Automatic annotation (TrEMBL):
Belongs to the phosphohexose mutase family. It comes from Methylopila jiangsuensis. One of its GO terms (biological process) is purine ribonucleoside salvage. Its cofactor is Mg(2+). One of its GO terms (molecular function) is phosphopentomutase activity. Pfam families: PGM_PMM_I, PGM_PMM_II, PGM_PMM_III, PGM_PMM_IV. NCBIfam families: pgm. The gene is celB. This is Phosphoglucomutase.
Length: 549
């Protein structure tokens, strides 16, 4: 990681906060320059994202994307309700208004929160799957308006088809192309009615998202074990969409749960700055999570979610803020021993850059692992079929099956991994940090890190298309190379980079989608010196491959 900012872990000076009125003015008045690639509609792994300050996330973009979604629904024969949710970012509120105007004008059966409040991403996925269960037509889909954990000035718009998970590239590619064509044509084919009329339109209805989701939690978690244990639980929603869900959860299930921060503020002024000095609501960052870490001894277990509640951060008295890879490993070991209702032995889903501790605990339990490229969309089919019991990413995103072995969500759900930490503590008498420490005595204690290295756009393009035979050398950090991967072993899909593995370590290199850098993920099961050697040699190997390319 680059040098840590002097502001990291500290509350931001008011002068450094996002100017929200100016941001919203830019949203409504700025027009993208379609000759600038960065200002065109572009769907990444989590939809279209950016800031109005850079003319990347504006009313123009959302008008076009919303109309493209209407056209896609008609093309795909999707004529059930569209569940629309938003998080607490300022641009989410603005984009919500724009989207409602378009969907209402197009006659889409639009479903929004009954209090016009906030809806977590996993709740949208849960609502889609619940509505579609047992249907043969009239399927629902949904949209989460959120840039996830990104800073206050960012916005995001993500489409989830009837399978409830992130849309695949064939869908987003069509929407992207269509939306850009609509913009280039001056938005002439975009249907829209004023917001006041749209909110009263007969095809726009309000719905209580909270109660069905909260009531269903008992079917994926042992909440009675948590209640009867009397655990003291602390929760920090980080000013996000999960905030209005925690009190109903505590009340319904009788939990001793304290919500530590009830503020919703689009500047996120209550956050401590991340490593680079930006206010980023990353619940896996020790700098962003500094206030909750400081309270770790006040609770038996504490946790946080990001603004759309699709990520989790776990804080324990013994370990402080857990590394996401460590928590995923501990969760897997616990779940596969405490879910007798899961049919057979469903596999574990992990991404190509997640810790090998997952593979080691799987081998210990006699489980198979499906390793896929980065992106939750790769887990959707396996979760629906019940073939994957637990799926997770190194960036603290996860989901798992109901106690019966049926699908819960097909998108990341930060709420259930958070509550699972309490279940694990209640049932075993040890917090997840202790459970992970016990595991490392058997599978080894890995050291994991990510660093960025400079790369030109041309080099990034080469890296994305590398073949295994372009990776030179026979050893990595003194160990024989076992595998050179450019395609994920779990499904054979290219992951846009390279992964090199040995018996006790590995590295993966992928180009950044937003910056002129490539990312090197590395892990060692030996020591810190071995990890640093892997990182250094990884840079040399990738540089040589880039030079040859």
């Amino acid at each position: 990681m680059a040098d840590v900012s002097e502001f990291a872990g500290k509350l931001a000076d008011p002068s450094r906060l996002t100017n929200i009125p100016r941001l919203l003015t830019e949203y409504f008045t700025s027009r993208p320059d379609m000759s600038v690639p960065a200002q065109r509609v572009a769907f990444g792994t989590s939809g279209h994202r950016g800031t109005a300050f850079d003319s990347v996330f504006t009313e123009t973009h959302i008008l076009a994307i919303a109309q493209a979604i209407c056209l896609y629904r008609a093309k795909a024969g999707i004529d059930g309700p569209l569940f629309l949710g938003k998080d607490t970012h300022a641009l989410s509120e603005a984009a919500f208004a724009t989207a409602v105007e378009v969907f209402a004008a197009n006659g889409v059966e639009l479903v929004i929160d009954d209090k016009l409040g906030y809806t977590p991403t996993p709740v949208i996925s849960h609502a889609i799957l619940t509505y579609n269960r047992g249907r043969t037509g009239g399927f629902a889909d949904g949209i989460a308006i959120t840039p996830s954990h990104n800073p206050a000035e960012d916005g995001g718009f993500k489409y989830n088809p009837p399978n409830g998970g992130p849309a695949d590239t064939d869908v987003t590619g069509w929407m992207e192309k269509t939306a850009n064509a609509l913009i280039e044509d001056g938005l002439r084919d975009v249907k829209r009615i004023p917001l006041q009329r749209a909110m009263k339109a007969p095809n726009v209805r309000r719905y209580d998202f909270t109660t069905p989701y909260v009531a269903d939690l008992e079917n994926v978690l042992d909440l009675e074990a948590i209640r009867s244990s009397g655990l003291r639980i602390g929760v920090d929603p980080l000013g996000g969409a999960g905030l209005p869900y925690w009190a109903p959860i505590a009340e319904r299930y009788g939990l001793d749960l304290t919500v530590l921060n009830t503020a919703v503020d689009p500047t996120f002024r209550f956050m401590t700055a991340d490593w680079d000095g930006k206010l980023r609501m990353d619940c896996s960052s020790p700098w962003a999570m500094a206030p909750l870490i400081g309270l770790k001894d006040r609770f038996d277990i504490a946790f946080a979610n990001d603004p759309d509640a699709d990520r989790h951060g776990i804080v324990t008295p013994t370990a402080g803020l857990m590394n996401p890879n460590h928590y995923l490993t501990a969760s897997i070991a616990y779940l596969y021993r405490h879910r007798p209702g899961w049919k057979g032995t469903p596999a574990i889903g992990k991404t190509i850059v997640s810790s090998s501790s997952v593979d080691r605990v799987a081998a210990k339990l006699g489980l198979s692992v499906m390793e896929v490229p980065v992106g939750f969309k790769w887990f959707v089919d396996g979760l629906i079929a019940g073939d994957l019991g637990f799926v997770g990413e190194e960036s603290a995103g996860a989901s798992f099956l109901r106690k019966t072995g049926e699908v819960w969500t097909t998108d990341k759900d930060g709420v259930i991994p958070a509550l699972l930490a309490a279940e694990m503590t209640a049932v075993t008498g040890k917090d997840p940090g202790e459970l992970y420490a016990d595991l490392t005595a058997e599978i080894g204690a890995p050291i994991y890190a990510r660093v960025d290295a400079a790369a030109t756009p041309e080099q990034k393009a080469v890296l994305k298309k590398l073949s295994a035979d372009q990776i030179p050398g026979d050893t990595l950090a003194g160990e024989p190379i076992l595998d050179r991967l450019t395609h994920a072993p779990g499904n054979g899909a290219a992951f846009g980079g390279v992964k090199v593995t040995t018996e006790n370590g590995w590295f993966a290199a992928r180009p950044s989608g937003t910056e002129n850098v490539y990312k090197i993920y590395a892990e060692s099961f030996i020591d810190e010196a071995h990890l640093q050697r892997i990182q250094a040699e990884a840079k040399e190997i990738v540089s040589a491959a880039l030079g040859a390319g």
